[in-house]
Every structure is written in structure tokens, then in C-alpha cells.
User: Fold these one by one.
Assistant:
Number 1:
Amino acid sequence: MPKVSQSLTTQNLKDLLNETEINDLVKYSQFSSCKEKDYTYGKDELCIKLISLLIDKCNEMKENSLVKLLIWVKKQLQIYLDIKPDAYTFKKLEKLKQSEPNLKMKFGWMVQYSLLNQEEDIYKMVRRTYKSNTIITKNKIKKNLMIKRNSLNPQIIKFANSGNIMNMNKINENLLDFKNPNFDIFKLENKVGKENILPVTSTYIFITFNLFSIIDYTKFEKFIFNIANGYNRENPYHTDLHAADVTQTVLIYFIFGNLQKILELNQIDLASIFIAAGMHDLGHPGYTNNFLINTKNDLAIRYNDQSVLESYHVSEGFRIILKKEGCNIFENLSNQDYKICRKRIIQCVLATDMTLHNKEFEFLKKKIETFGIKNGENFEKIFEGLDPVTTYNLKQDFLNVLIHSADVSNPSKPLNIYKQWAKRCVDEFFRQGDMEKKLGMPVSFNCDRETVTLAQSQLGFIDAIVFPLFSVLIEFFEDLNFTVENLKKNREYFKGVKENKENKENKDKEKEEKEEKEEKEENKTIIKEENEEKSED
Ligand code: AMP
Ligand code: MG
Ligand code: ZN
């Protein structure tokens, strides 16, 4: 008979339950004997006790805690009693469900609709988070890089070889400068070519975070080139260059915000956000969601007018991964890791829908108010005492804010870079405006080239969206201060442009009025003279 008393002491439960829950459990009458060190439960006795514990607790506990308890019970059955939990526990539960209507409802809901399975996946992931960093030894990293070096795409190798792929610092300093917040992606695009900019950016990041230890390099290469080619390079703004920019910007936030450590992200989390950044505007047609909805476009019909583009981008991305030969970057992942990764990617891409901006902004503000976040202090308090599922979701909330921030970050870049993005973005808006005029539709906000100016649109975008967002973001990640500094300078620049234009327009107007007045005076004099001449005659 296996000894189970150890498994029921406070000590051994720490990784599964919080202190209150452990105390609850130990206090619980059915397990009072587990306090006695040598007590051994019989197999059937324990099984019945565990299951009746579940039943009794079922009505008092919230879904999350209940799932946690159920997982724990399953683990006890598996480890100590060598019972295959799914077969056994559920057979028992099935019987019990029939006699307990409440239980039937709760478990029926959880098990039938597989919330339980999903939650359990998340638990496994969360627990692995703490292990993932130690699993990969230095030798393993070296070996992975050797393999990658041999199979790198020739375009990337060309650039990698001018540094040394084995030496990340050399790449940083000499080659790509990806970790510099003033990094000029337009320059790199000129060097590597339009079709390579996204693959080079993503590959660099995957190497940096050693993500090729979980994702096969050859598949990734094929996948990322397919993603890059899936962008519409005719668009002024929404191309793979923008995707590469967002990807690199997220990297900057990770480095300067020390995010991997603060948010305790594992490799699946990291792979998810960088894959999401790469595919977040995939197949963008150059028109906004509202335009697609108003023109009753097929995409709007398919996605029921809800986050039309974002749903499309992420769906197309997964179509490449799952349906295109040789692109399944998730093939080596366990089913659970795949599920988590897919879930994270979908949520990240959907979070780039601008209609969610206020929600994301309010999320940050609320955390600041509740936890007194200032200059990066107290951040850790947000995660204190949370159960793993809530922690998982909270991390997702932060990933969402980060990808959204990177997506609207161009006004926070150095001015020469920002100006190029702004012009492209406004050009794309104007193209839409032209199309709307052609179709006899009302012209959308910011889309009329005859009335909207670049400076005016930029001041509006900075004041309404970007400045408030980044002002709040830097309270969490103090080292991202440079974003707000750039925003202030860039705002002054466009303010100057707008004022100069207005001054010039005012002067032109004054000049015009003056000329008009002079002309009128002149006409009056001529008429007067003519009249005088006439009367003399
Ligand atoms: P996305 O379309 O996914 O790139 O979402 C970001 C949105 O932010 C764009 O669609 C634009 O509406 C807006 N945006 C980004 N940069 C600018 C900019 N410089 N000026 C005006 N709007 C911008
Ligand atoms: Mg988008
Ligand atoms: Zn975007």
C-alpha cells in the first residue's frame, strides 16, 4: 500500500495550493489523520475521501479553485495510487454526478465543455515557466546555433557572416543594431531588401531568445518568408516593413522594460508575442475596418463586422502555419504548448484592434491606481498572491498592451524615422478617402487629402492616443522614458509645422485681402476719373 500521508502535508502541497487553501485542506475533517506523520490511507479509502472532498468543496469554491483542487486530486490519484485519473476519477464522478444535481451542473459544465482541460494546460505551462530557463544549458545553446548556422537562409547568412552568429554581442554592435531604440529600420531594409526585412528581424529575435530550441529553424524560415510575402507591398503603410518595425519595437520594450524577467515569461510566451507581431497585419488590404464594413466587403461578412482585419490577419497566419507545406513551426511542440501558443498569438493580434485602445489604456490606469505604480516601483505587487490562471491572464493583458503600444509607436521614434511612417500612414488614409469619394461615400475621418494635413493628423494622433498611452506605460517601465521624450519633441515639431502653415496661410490671406482692397480702391479711382472725364466732355 503506498504511503500517502506525506503528500497531504502542508509542505508537499505548496506548489499547488496557496496557504489558505492548504490550511483549509489540512483542517478539513476527512484529512485530519494526515497530520499524523505515519498515517497511511488505504487506496479505496483515500479515493473515496478525495472524491467526497471534491463534492463537499464543490459548492463552496469558485470555478478556478475547484479546478485547482480537481487537478490536485487527479495528481494524488495518479502519483500515489497509480490510477489513471481520467478513466477512474471521471467514472466515479459520473456516478456521483447522478445523485448530486449541483455537482452535475458544475462538473458537467467544466468537463463537457473542456474548460477543465484548457485550464489544466495553463497550469502545466505556468509551472514550467519557472523551469524553462534552467533547462537549456549553454552547450545546448551552442549546439542549436551550430545547426542554425548551417541551415540559415543565404540572405540572412550574408549579414550574419559579417558579424559572427555565435557571438550575439558582435551582431548587436556591428550588424543589426536591433537593440538600439534609435534603430533605423528603413536603412536596414535598404541593405537587406524588402522581402528579407521581416525574416531577418524575426530570425534575429528568435536567435536572441534561443527560441530555435523549441521551434525548428527550417520550418520557421519557410514560415516567416511566407508571412512576409503575404503582406501587400503596394500599401504605403501596412506592409511587412511595418510588421518588422512592430516586432523590433516589442523587442526594445522587452529589453528596456526588462519584461522577460518582470513578467516571468517563458519561451512559449516569447515565441507567441514575436510571432504575433510578425503576422499582426498580414494580408492588410490598405483599408480600415470601417471601410470594409461600410462597403459590405467579404471580410466584414465573414467576421460579422467584429475586429474584421485583426481576425483576418491571425487566421491567415495560422492558415500558413497549419496548411502550407513545411511551415508548421509548432510541429515539435506538445499539444498543450501548441494550444497555449495559439491562444496567446490570437489574443495578441486581436488586441491590435484600435477600438480596444481605451480598454487597454484603462487597464493600465487602474493598475497604477490600485497598486501605486510609479517610476517602475510596486510592479511586482500586481502579481502577488494570484492563482496561476489569473497570473496567466494578467500576463496576457500586459502582452496585449505591449503589442498595441508597439503598433502605434511610430510617433515615439526619432523624428526622421517617425516622419517617414507618418507620411506613409496618412498616404494610405488618403487613398481610402479617394476611393470613398469615387464610390460616392462619406469620406472617413482623417482621409480627405483636400482638408486634412499631415501635421494636423499627427498632433491629433499624439494628443489623443500615443502620448496618454506612453505616459502611463512609463510608470510601469521607467526605462522606456525615451519614448515620451521623443513624443514631446515630435509634437513640438508638428506643432511648429502646423503653426508655420497657419501663419503662412494667415499672411497669404492678409496679403490677398490687402490686394483685393487695393484693387477695389484702384477701381474706385478709375471709375471716379472716368466719371470726371465724362463730365468734362
Ligand atoms: P494597425 O493598422 O494594426 O497598424 O493599427 C494601428 C493604427 O494606428 C493604424 O491603423 C492607424 O489608424 C493608427 N496609426 C498608426 N500610426 C499612425 C500615425 N502616424 N498617424 C495616424 N494614425 C496612425
Ligand atoms: Mg492592424
Ligand atoms: Zn499594425
Number 2:
Amino acid sequence: MSSPAEFDGAARPDLWWRSAVVYQIYPRSFQDSNGDGIGDIPGITSRLDYLAELGVDVLWLSPVYSSPQVDNGYDISDYHDVDPLFGTLADLDELIAQAHTRGIKVVMDLVVNHTSDQHPWFVESRQPGSAKRDWYFWRPARPGHEPGTPGAEPDDSQAAFAPSTWTYDPRSGEYYLGIFSSAQPDLNWEMPEVRHAVYAMMRWWVDRGVDGFRMDVINLISKPPAFISGEPLDPGSAGLGQIANGPRLDEFLAEMNREVGLDVQNLLTVGEMPGATIEVARRVTDPARRELNMVFTFEHVSLDQVDWNKWHLADLPLPRLKQNLAHWQDGLAQAGWNSLYYDNHDQPRAVSRFGDDSAEHRVNSAKTLATVLHLHKGTPYVYQGEEFGMTNAPLTQIEHYLDVESLNYATQAAAAGVPEEQILRSLARKARDHARTPVQWDQSPHAGFTTGVPWMGVNPNYRQINAEAARRDPDSVFGHFQRLIRLRHTDEVVREGHFVLLLPEHDQLWTFTRSLGDRVLLVIANCSSTPAELPPGALPNLDQAMLLLGTHPDSAGGTLAPWESRVLRLAAD
Ligand code: GLC
Ligand code: CA
């Protein structure tokens, strides 16, 4: 039995986040409490017992701050308040308190590479001579061009969700930078006042009881020196490549850590870092440098594309995926720490993407994908609905898509002459909307998400795939996630064991060992929809191995069923 101390959700022992499992909530789609069709904070509080039953240690809330909602809250107009869509500050205080009572910590999303264009800082910055002018990046029109006319943007760089990173403001006749969209102007972190305003805001949240921060695109805060000194950005997507991982990134993160007391207070910190290499991640997460606990890499979720463009689809053979994760395990083995994820609010559903979401294989492929991920070394992240195998949505027409990223892609691709079938194929595979359909709680109308009209349609498969059905069935994906989470909590080898990938070229089997002293775990997973033979002699001796967790408990021997996985404890020699 756990001691009461373990249920003190507000206590933060040293390195507690290394044994934690984090659950991400996208509030808009989690649970509506007032019938307006939009998930909200009281809705989350009403589901805390479910999350406690699952066994997770931490909730990460995607943004609930005041926001015009151009990018569903990743455009913040007031960092110190909750958007009325989601409730009130008092509701959030109550959620934090109720989570802590259940031994669950709460991590806030922190979006400080940019604000909303409605944020008072930006409103002031728009005034040409204002004291906050340089809190953002302003540039004159391209030489020889009339400001505000087509082609007069300072350079040809493209925003992530818009044709240009530059937006014209007639008030001054200048342009401002928005790497994502014109509704999300980039803050200028070169200004000490900007940094200190952000740190003060973070301290305010820590004082309110939050246990850490997930930092949105945090490796974009230090911009390249050439850009700072006024040079144009290269054409093509500002895509993060040329803007990410600037020379002052480590300095800013270390300063933030010091000024907010991130390490001193044992807060969980995870930096979202598109374009970060292992080398950057190693630096940022090396405990000696006191920057962040861990980062979200994008490498493994960029393997099924070409040209650094998520819409340019490519097949993904298993060896590439497992070798990439292994590469990160090796890269951060000596210093630093990994985060482990497939799913979040920006990615299509893992079971549809890396597994097989057919009726025949959905359950076992969701379980086996989870087994593999959760048995790696690092902190696993579960995204709402992943724990019972939610799938991509059947979105078959452009009109079905709501997300700013998808709509911008569809418009630009159509203008460039890409055939509609191809656009729809890319969207069906990669759109962020797949992750954003409402959580399927039960069989009731709208899957129990709302009594009103949901802001986004519920996936019609909710009658078969829902949390209630999964909770009742011990063989469900939900039951499997519970067992994986428990195993991490109880087994030190799962938390700290050294990782070695076996059979790196095998195109069906994902298999590896974890070892700590003389204790060894072996994971064998068939990541395919056909049976797989264990190659004789290629794996450690399985005589006397003990099955800790499997998808097909009655099976043994040298053939794995489709999507079968086993976690074995090997006998010590
Ligand atoms: C991050 C968020 C994404 C958002 C973008 C801009 O990638 O996860 O949802 O659109 O940053 O804030
Ligand atoms: Ca609501």
C-alpha cells in the first residue's frame, strides 16, 4: 500500500519526474460541463477520478489562458487569467487542489515564444514610439517597394500557418514577425524586460500551486544573430530550421531556471523543440547545466514525411522508427533525460499512424505500441484517448477540417496546383484535427462529452471505442496502460535501466533490453499485422524468463501473433 506521503500531490521530492507518467489534456475536447459544446476546467475536475484510476502522476493542460482562440489557445492575450470558455481562475485553483488531493500534479502550457496580437504588450508595441516597440520584431518594407503592397514584405519567409511571416501594420508602415501566424507575433527575447516579465508571470503560477511547465516551441526564443541585426530570413518555411536553436537558447533557459527557481523547487520542465538535435537536447537536459528536465523531439514524428514538410507523405519502415528512438536513448544515456511520446494535440493518432486501427488489430496494436514506448527510458506522455485506443477521424472533405494549420495548407496547396485528392490524402494522414475530436467517454449521445452541440464532431466509432467500455474490460487497452504505468512505478529497471536495441534491421520485431546491475528486462514486440518468428539464437535465453506483462498472456514460444508483445524478466545468471 502507498503511504499517505505518496498521495501528497503538492510535494515534489528530488527527481520525482523521472518516475512519473504525464497525461496531456486538450481542454477544449476533454469534457464539457455546461452544455456549450466546449470542454472546460470543471469538466476536467469531474474526470479526476478516472485519471487517478488510470494511475498517471501529472496532468499537462494545453492552454486555458485568455485567448482569441485563433490557434485554440496557443495565442494568449492574458497570461494571468483563464479564458471564460474554459471557466475561471477559481475553477483552475479548484482543479489544482483536487488533483493534488489525488496525488496528481498539474503542469501548465507556457507559450512565450509569441503572444496573441491582442495581448496588451503587442497592442502597445504597435504604437511607433512606444516603450514596448522592441518587445517584438518590426521591419521596414523591402527596399524599393511601397509598404503594404504585394511583395513588399521584408523577405520571402513563410509562416507555419500563413503564407508570410510578416504582417503589415499601417499605423507605422512597418511589418511585424509571426513565425506561426499574424495572430501570434514573436516576442523579442533579446530584450531583458521581455524575459523578466515572462519569469515574473511564471513565478505567479508557481505560487498558485502549479508543478511545472510544458514550454511551447521554446527553442525558437533565441533568434539567429543575422536576423537580429536586420538581415532577411531565407525563403521557404521559416520552419523552424533556420530560426530554431539560436546561440542564446541555453543562456535564456538557464536564466529562466534561476529566476523562476525551476530546479530549486523541483518543477517539471519539458521544452517543445522542433528541429532540436540530440546534441541540443543533451545540452539542455544535462542536469549540471540547470536548464530543463527534458525536451520533446520531433525526429520520430517526422520520419513519415519528406522535405521537412509534414504533408509530403512517405512510408515508414519499422527499422527507421525504432532506430531513431534508440538513437535518442543512446544520445541521452550519459547525461540528460528523454521524454517519450507518439501522440499529442498536434499529431494524428498513434494507433492509426504506427499501428493498425482495423477492428481486428486496433486493441493489440494500441497495446503493443504502448508497451514499446513505455518500456523505453524516459518520462512517458499519454495523450487523452490514447489510453483506450482512440483512432483518427473519418475526415474526408476539406470542409471537415477546422484547424488553422490544415486550412492554410489546403488553400496554399490548391493555389499551387496540388490535386484535391492529394491534399485530402495528406490531411487524412496528418491533420491535427484527428487528435482534437472530443474524448469518447461512453455510448450516450456525443459520447458523453457534452449535452450540447460539440464544437467538433465526435468520431462515429464512439459506440465501440469509449472509456467506459474499456474500463469494464480488464483486457482492454485501458487495462494495459494501467499495468504499464504500475510497472514503471514499481520496477526500478523500467525507470533507470540501460537501453540496448536488438535486431535493429528486423522489419517486424521491435525488441530491446533494459538492464540495471544484474537485473534484465527483455521486450519483444511484433509491430506488424502478420505473425512473426523469433529468429533462433538471436535473442537472450528465454528459458526461465518470467512474463511480466503481455498482450497474449497464454502464448509462449517462438512465434508472436500479429501485434503481440511480451515484457520478460530474464533470470540472473
Ligand atoms: C506548438 C503547439 C501547437 C501550436 C504552435 C504555435 O507547436 O503545440 O499546437 O500551434 O506551437 O504555438
Ligand atoms: Ca463548456
